[in-house]
Amino acid sequence: MDKALATADGPVGPNARGYFGEYGGMFVPETLMPAIHELTAAFEAARHDPEFKREFDYLLKYYVGRPSPVYFAERLTQHLGGAQVWFKRDELNHTGAHKINNCIGQILLARRMGKKRIIAETGAGQHGVASATVAARFGLTCTVYMGALDVERQAPNVFRMKLLGAEVRPVEAGSRSLKDALNDALRDWAATSDDSYYMVGTAAGPHPYPLLVREFQSVIGTEARAQMLAETGRLPDLLVAAIGGGSNAIGLFHPFLDTDVAMTGVEAAGEGLDKRHAASLTRGRMGILHGSKSYVLQDGDGQIIEAHSISAGLDYPGVGPEHAALKDSGRVKYIPVGDDAAMDAFKLLAKLEGIIPALEPAHALAHVIDIAPKMKKDQIILMNLCGRGDKDVFTVARHLGVTL
Ligand SMILES: *Cc1c(COP(=O)(O)O)cnc(C)c1O
């Protein structure tokens, strides 16, 4: 790691040009640079404004339901016979996952900038729903770009977005999936940035998005650090979180980077690393996607390969640049977990703890199930249970061959 690149923001950055080591930056058309500069200035002012923080904290408490508790999974721990397993219960948030934390921060930023309209893109629809939720709460209009194929596959979330008053625009270009929706959202923003705010849903995109999403999601790790100290008298030995673009993971990890707590990010190995998967950090190469440089799934010609995972929230063909830098520095370990192991973990948690997790954190849980028995009984694992499984019961039923 190049020490000179480190800033007060964190051990790997970003620097003033938005680089975490070699990753990140602003790879957008010249026409978008004024909008990027306006956003950067607004965020820098907001993050030092006590009134902004007061309102952010207020909404997280009374609208989202924070703080989410940390919970000792006693029966799972007994079953695994090794390290104590604790969960950060972010699945208890309003709308059922961590995405709302970021959307609250960004809608306050949009309002502060005087914007009247929200642009978002979504793959599975989870970020689209969270964006439509906060747009409704603040009375802004909301346009969500979604690949036409995803619109067909994710009908319940499309309906939710419409109920919340958003317009869903199906994208017919290319593979009609997330990467095509990303392009159209950026194109819309380039044409409308005077009155529109682009709400990015993960710790990726051009600078300053990876930074601001991390800052808003860091509420997860900041709460967890204080809660674990209060409950157990010390910090955990290991943090585990699932990685799509990397927002819930960086939100948990970042407030612990100044400690010696070990961290593992779990990405989706889908059907296997030699078949269809979403393991950008394990199998990707440096490339440019969504306005920044990071590990990207691409073929020999540099074309983006569509990601696959049984969990729709993990099938993003890139990963946030801070994770790329943390991987190269060795500070965080990243491992792939496939569909079948995630499904087994999903079923085990339902039976042992009475918690139906989303399929995304079920990937993280599969790693916990693997590693906890190899650790000592006085060691502590804290996993981010970043979403609830209500949205996934149809997928799971199909996987199990059950007709509902
Ligand atoms: C969207 C989503 C993810 C993946 O996104 P990150 O930015 O990597 O956190 C993970 N879990 C759940 C429940 C999600 O909805």
Q: Structurally, how many domains make up the residues? A: 2
Estimate the global geometry from the Cα principal axes.
globular
SS class: alpha/beta
Q: Can you count the beta strands?
A: 14
Q: How much of the sequence is in beta strands?
A: 15-25%
CATH architecture assignment of the largest domain: 3-Layer(aba) Sandwich
Bound molecules: pyridoxal-5'-phosphate
The parts where pLDDT drops under 50 for at least 5 residues are 1-7
Q: Any idea what the radius of gyration is?
A: 20 Å
Question: What is the CATH topology descriptor of the largest domain?
Answer: Rossmann fold
Characteristics of this structure?
404 residues, Rossmann fold, 4-stranded parallel β-sheet, 43% helix, globular, binds pyridoxal-5'-phosphate
Characterise this structure.
It is a single chain. The protein is of the alpha/beta class and 404 residues long. The protein contains 16 helices and 14 strands. It has helices spanning 33-47, 50-64, 74-80, 99-112, 126-138, 148-153, 155-163, 178-192, 209-217, 219-232, 247-253, 280-283, 321-329, 339-353, 359-371, 393-399; strands at residues 19-20, 23-24, 70-72, 84-88, 117-122, 141-147, 167-171, 196-199, 238-242, 262-270, 285-289, 292-296, 333-338, 380-384. The strands form four sheets. It has a six-stranded mixed sheet with strand order 3-4-14-9-10-13, with helices on both faces. A four-stranded parallel sheet has the order 7-6-5-8, with helices on both faces. A two-stranded antiparallel sheet has the order 1-2. The longest helix has 15 residues, at 33-47. The chain starts with 18 loop residues before the first strand and ends in a 5-residue tail after the last helix. Residues 1-7 have low confidence and may be disordered. The structure holds pyridoxal-5'-phosphate. Pyridoxal-5'-phosphate binds at residues 97, 99, 126, 202, 242-249, 313-314, 358, 360, 386-387.
